[in-house]
Amino acid sequence: MAKTEKKLIANNKKAYHDFFLEERYEAGIELHGTEVKSMRMGKCSIKEAFIRIENGEVIIYGMHVSPYEKGNIFNRDPLRPKKLLMHKSEIRKLIGKIAEKGYTLVPVEVYFKGSLVKVDIALAKGKKQYDKRQDIAKKDMRREAERDFKVKNLY
Fold first, then answer.
1. CATH number of the domain within which 13 lies
2. Which of 21-25, 65-69, 129-133 is predicted least confidently?
3. Fewest CB atoms within 10 Å of the CB: 21, 61, 80, 150?
4. Is residue 115 domain-resident?
């Protein structure tokens, strides 16, 4: 069987910054009308996207697919929620993992695999986001102490 090549459409660098990505899954996207043409042109952003499981279905919110320029009444809302296509067994496994404390689903990249649009989603744990002012103040105090020590040792 021939290898199918991946053609990257969108990458979510923010996911790598904000989360520890543990397990990755591949899912298809349910697209309508001119959204497919927009995807072929690379008009997609998943920077602010997030994923939820509702009623046994995996849905991606905040994925922006720009309207097709030559489209008319067939253009859909760019931010409409889109259903992700996964097997029931994978969805049940994800529900079990999300029930654990601190896990969430994050879209990592969108790409073409052959003629199909796929989303790489990751089971992720959030990184600790905290106020860095205290660390900066400690670093400044340590730097000042080192300067004073160097000046005293010169004489």
1. 2.40.280.10
2. 129-133
3. 150
4. yes
